[in-house]
Design brief:
By secondary structure, the protein is α+β, with helices and mostly antiparallel strands. It is 15% helix and 59% strand. It has one domain: Nuclear Transport Factor 2, Chain: A.
């Protein structure tokens, strides 16, 4: 996401993936990637840092939990947030893909208007 490599982001999701975000959701990897593109494109920069990654592997399925801090910058203003990623993944012939992603913000700091998308 931070590099805006949309093809790489597509490759990380199952075609029928579901994304559940703090204030929105999306079904299917195309909708998930388009949502990310629409959210991130107006921003000058983003940086998502993950930590405390836990993985529970069961054959070709895995569940993961990770904490995150995400910085969003636009027009010199910054918005920082932290929270959790909870994912279910499936092993495919081309690698692991996210089947379900749940993102929950826990805290934030800065100017939340940085994330406001204006439609003209």
């Amino acid at each position: 996401m931070d590099t805006r490599d949309w093809e790489l982001l597509v490759a990380g999701y199952d075609p029928d993936a579901h994304g559940d975000y703090t204030s929105a959701s999306a079904d299917g990897r195309d909708a998930i990637v388009e949502s990310a593109r629409g959210f991130l494109t107006p921003l000058d920069a983003t940086q998502h840092l993950l930590g405390n990654v836990e993985v529970d592997l069961d054959g070709d399925t895995a569940t993961t939990h990770a904490t995150f801090i995400a910085q969003h910058v636009r027009d010199g203003a910054r918005f920082l947030m932290g929270g959790n990623y909870d994912d279910t993944l499936r092993r495919t012939p081309t690698g692991w893909q996210i089947v379900n992603r749940r993102i929950r913000g826990i805290w934030s700091d800065g100017d939340p208007s940085v994330l406001t998308v204006t439609v003209s």
